[in-house]
UniProtKB/TrEMBL annotation:
Its EC number is 1.3.8.7, 1.3.8.8. Residues 305-452 form the Acyl-CoA dehydrogenase/oxidase C-terminal domain. This is Acyl-coenzyme A dehydrogenase. Residues 741-765 are annotated as: Disordered. It comes from Thiothrix subterranea.
Length: 765
């Protein structure tokens, strides 16, 4: 090392490294495990400030195999056709026995299990398509199918299980002989799963006739465990301790995972939770002094203490598939059938879908459905290609479940009384009730947005930040100098890009096609500004950024909307850029770009050093706010896409269960749409006859009979209009029940668990 380098390190680099060490957040073991699980993908391009659009545009989107498509067209179609959601949610409070048998027989629970173990070995896209289609029919059935294929014993065994565990359990999980659940959440550990109090003590104990078997004595209490009440195999997360040092010198080994048959002595499967009238099997379980041998640990003794990393990695992929698919299925169902309802339902002599007040939520439904589907497909493709994009799957889960919340609320506003009256004919109410479930599970949205997406995303994706943190923690001055120099160059380049793009609106960048190019330009500009803003936030706040959750949440919104807009552009181009789909593309892009801009401006207003923040904001947005949300003309164009059959409508709702059966709760609306549109010209003639005073009858039926008798309308036209009127009446009807219907339900309702305890206490007293 030269004398100059020695002086530089002593007087400049070391003091700077100590200063940075104080500013940058330390990385705990659980955070390091989270960072080590998964990888970076397109999110890193967005963080770079200079995304390589060719990389995205050249990406080959996943396609269903012939076998996967046959499964969707066969068993999944049959399942959806036979699902009676009113029977499931109101009468049985469970799936019917024949449905459970069908799910097992057709290996719905083994979609992710490789074929060599008797599973279906489906791709992530196929997994997503199956869940989406079922979700468009029944949330209860969709949750039942998706849980064994998401976070649970199956996925953990595939990735980490010993060969003996795979050979024994995977075939049984694939054909439904074993029903799995996974116990992670407990009364004292919800979103903070890393601090679970459930524990295991390494010890020796007689087991199955063998003396002094090395194993673990477990104590736990879990709740909110989906499939728990019917599970035969319990996956369990607990903290492992070794006070006698039977495994080594370490006493607190860390979070560990085990597989336990639910009929094992000491395991207590509790009652059922009742989640908002959506009766998927869910409930608590616990165990006291339950002994298991070491080979019941997932992965065996070699995986002790690695449970948190295993869970985070499994959860990362699972939440990128299952809940986004469920949310998109609900969105597509709403788009198709609420749109049809808005056309056949008339008020003041017009379809309600023609009113501007209804057009706004209708356009919001369609535009966001397009956006959700694009994000779902792109993320499934990434997983299929071996990516493990932990940040992207987290943001996709929270964005799509939140979008479902808003979509279904919009749908309820449009449907009105037809949406709130429960009964066999209602196709919206259960979706409405289920909204908080997706928002709550697999990482609560509030914490996912405010803590995980940007908090982990910045460290994972920033080209230099993690290297700086690691260099400061290890005291490697040379490595710190390299990382700091790279970081400085990164800031300078993004500052230059941000100023230039702000002045020119990135008009000189070339990406995309004539129909998409200007949106690529907007994203390029916003990406460079996001990268610069991220550095400003990180350098000005340092470790305090962890505690500035509202600011972190706004940064997460920026990243999420940049990703979703990227997905929309890819989706449009992959579908052949149909011109009739342009309103959907424009709505989704303008919506996400405007949201990105607003989140950026809100972040600027809440950063330290207001003078510097104001200067940067002026440099980035020299002409004020350049991006506006969808305008009224675009809202009108999008809303009209929902009101009649078209190739665009079919593409938007592709993959859900479709029917025009007039006896089906959804099919009756589709049936009415086609009959109403077929009778449009006759309807106009009939209204003109009434307006001109050529018909004297007071009722519709009598007036049509009169028009037929007078030769003003032919018999075929009269029958066509009558069929449309009957179909419309069928589409807008709601269910009602006699008073006696409700009394047995009140009388037979079992007492609440806590109430039973109080009754027992009073009796004992």
């Amino acid at each position: 090392m030269s004398w100059f380098a020695t002086l530089r390190q002593h007087y400049l680099s070391r003091p700077l490294m100590r200063f940075v060490e104080q500013r940058l957040p330390p990385i705990s073991r659980t955070e390091q495990d989270a960072l080590d699980s998964g990888n970076v993908w397109w999110d890193a391009e967005l963080f770079s400030g200079n995304p390589d659009w060719c990389r995205l545009r050249d990406l080959s989107i996943s396609k269903l195999s012939a076998e996967e498509q046959a499964f969707l067209d066969g068993p999944v179609e049959e399942l959806c056709r036979n699902l009676d959601d009113w029977q499931i949610t109101h009468e049985l409070l469970d799936l019917p026995p024949d449905t459970w048998a069908f799910l097992k027989q057709q290996r719905f629970f083994g979609m992710i299990i490789p074929k060599q173990y008797g599973g279906l070995g489906f791709s992530a896209l196929a997994h997503s398509q199956v869940v989406m289609k079922i979700a468009s029919r029944s949330v209860t059935a969709a949750v039942t199918v998706m849980v064994p294929n998401s976070l649970g014993p199956g996925e953990l065994l595939i990735k980490y299980g010993t060969q003996a565990q795979k050979d024994h359990y995977l075939p049984r999980l694939a054909d439904g002989r074993d029903i799995p659940c996974f116990g992670l959440t407990g009364p004292e550990a919800g979103s903070d799963a890393g601090s679970i109090p459930d524990n295991g003590i390494v010890c020796r104990q007689d087991f199955n006739g063998q003396p002094a078997v090395l194993g673990i004595r477990l104590n736990w209490e879990k709740r909110y465990i989906t499939l728990g009440p019917v599970a035969t195999l319990l996956g369990l997360a607990f903290r492992l301790y070794d006070p006698e040092h039977l495994l080594g010198d370490k006493e607190d080994i860390g979070i560990t995972l085990a597989l336990i048959p639910t009929d094992h002595p000491g395991v207590e499967i509790g009652n059922r939770h009742f989640a908002l009238d959506i009766p998927f099997q869910n409930g608590p379980n616990k165990g006291k002094d339950v002994f298991i041998p070491m080979d019941w640990l997932i992965g065996g003794q070699e995986q002790v203490g690695n449970g948190w990393r295993m869970l985070v990695e499994a959860l990362g992929e699972g939440r990128g598939i299952s809940l986004p698919a469920l949310s998109t299925g609900a969105a597509k169902m709403v788009s198709r059938y609420v749109g049809a309802y808005a056309r056949v339902r008339q008020q003041f002599g017009l379809p309600i879908g023609h009113f501007e007040g209804v057009e706004e939520p209708l356009a919001h439904i369609l535009g966001n459905t397009y956006l959700m589907d694009a994000g779902r497909i792109l993320t499934a493709t990434a997983i299929d290609q071996g990516q493990r994009p932990a940040v992207i799957t987290a943001l996709l889960k929270y964005q799509l479940t939140e979008a479902m919340r808003k979509l279904v609320n919009d749908a309820m506003d449009i449907a009105g009384g037809a949406g709130i009256c429960m009964g066999p004919s209602n196709y919206l109410a259960r979706a409405y009730q289920s909204i908080p479930i997706g928002i709550t599970v697999e990482g609560a949205n509030i914490l996912t947005r405010s803590l995980i997406v940007f908090g982990q995303g910045a460290i994972r994706n920033h080209p230099w930040l993690l290297q700086e943190i690691q260099a400061t923690q290890s005291g490697d001055v040379a490595a710190f100098e390299r990382a700091a120099a790279g970081h400085l160059g990164h800031i300078v380049r993004n500052l230059g890009r941000s100023v230039w793009y702000g002045l020119t609106n990135a008009i000189f960048t070339v990406s995309g096609t004539p129909m998409t190019r200007h949106y690529y330009r907007h994203l390029t500009r916003l990406s460079s500004q996001f990268a610069l803003l991220s550095d400003f936030a990180l350098l000005s706040l340092g470790g305090d950024l962890k505690r500035r959750e509202r600011l972190s949440g706004r940064m997460a919104d920026i990243l999420a909307n940049l990703y979703l807009c990227s997905a929309v552009l890819k989706h449009f181009e992959e579908q052949g850029q149909p011109e009739t789909d342009l309103p959907l593309l424009e709505y989704a892009c303008r919506l996400t770009i405007h949201r990105t801009q607003q989140a950026m401006l809100a972040a600027f207003h809440n950063l330290p050093l207001p003078w510097l923040a104001k200067l940067l904001r002026t440099l980035m947005f020299p002409y004020g706010k350049p991006f506006s949300p969808p305008d009224d003309a675009l809202i009108h164009r999008v809303a009209r896409l929902a009101l009649e059959p078209s190739a665009t409508r079919d593409r938007l709702t592709q993959g859900i269960y479709l029917t025009n059966d007039p006896n089906d709760r959804m099919g009756r609306i589709e049936d009415a749409l086609h009959k109403v549109l077929a009778a449009t010209d006759v309807e106009k003639q009939f209204r003109k006859l009434l307006k001109d005073g050529k018909l004297a009858a007071y009722t519709t039926e009598a007036a049509l009979a009169e028009a037929k008798a007078k030769g003003l309308l032919d018999a075929f036209s009269v029958e066509k209009l009558l069929a449309a009127r009957r179909a419309t009446a069928n589409a807008v009807r709601v269910d009602d029940f006699p008073a006696e219907y409700f009394r047995p339900h009140r009388q037979e309702e079992p007492p609440h668990h806590d109430q039973r305890e109080r009754n027992t206490e009073r009796t004992s007293a």
